[in-house]
Amino acid sequence: MIGRRCGAHVTVDGVRQTGVTVSMGVVATMEREGQRGEQGQAVLLPGVDPRKKPYVCGSCAAFSNIVITFPIQKVLFRQQLFGVRAGEAVTQLRRDGLRNLYRGLLPPLLQKTTTVALMFGLYEDFSRLLPRHAGAPELLTRSLAAVLAGTAEAAFTPFERVQTLLQDPRHHGRFHNTFHTFRTLLRDHGVRECYRGLVPILLRNGPSNALFFGLRGPIKQRLPEAQSPAAHLVNDFICGGLLGAMLGFLFYPLNVLKARMQAQVGGAFAPSRAVLLTIWRERDGKVTHLFRGAHLNYHRSILSWGIINATYELLLKVM
Question: For 285, left (φ over 0), alpha (ψ -120 to 50), or beta?
């Protein structure tokens, strides 16, 4: 995509856009900061610092997503960990009972509301700061900003670790809740145990962030032009959902690897390559078996990232 700024207008691939700035595929309304929402909507939190808005909006978007999609995530987790079909995973959850359906909700709620806030907030901050200290092209600085934001998110790996243990039925009798799990891991194994599975998370976060922020703008530009706030919301949902589904499928084997590594408690820290080879052998050396559960992850990602992207953009306009 090529953007050319012309006063109050921008020409994008030969099409003139009004009041829009386009850079590295990121589309941002020039009047977004400090204005009232579309169609005269009242600003919800007028006192929020504009630089903090991406953090607040990202956190709220993640909260909405986790509460809605958590049961689907539990089915997907069983498929990743045990390599079973969706029907068998649902049967396992039925046997566990309704009281265990939202068992393990708190770790992803804490983790996602924090990491998605960092994902959007740090990306915006790094995108603003890096050009001041580096003479690199904007495409490179924005890609680096996305990778750095993803790397920072990995600091919250312990939440994913605890979520894995609470969702694994083999540990139901050992770990009671989020705080008990943290306390047990730290007391019996130390801080390092909380970061088991860090390598696949780092390999996943940085590249996926770079692709998400790099492709979000171009995808939205190719959707039908929105003529109303509702249409903008739909376009944002479609854009986020398509990207989430694509990236979720592309990086799915890393999530399978992470789930296997984090299901272990204590013992040696096996290299990621060795664990992946073990999974490969257990699943008969078939790529299709390695991607078991990917179809459910695909549909969940459409819903999850559609909700996150649409909610984030909506909150930016009304805050």
Answer: left
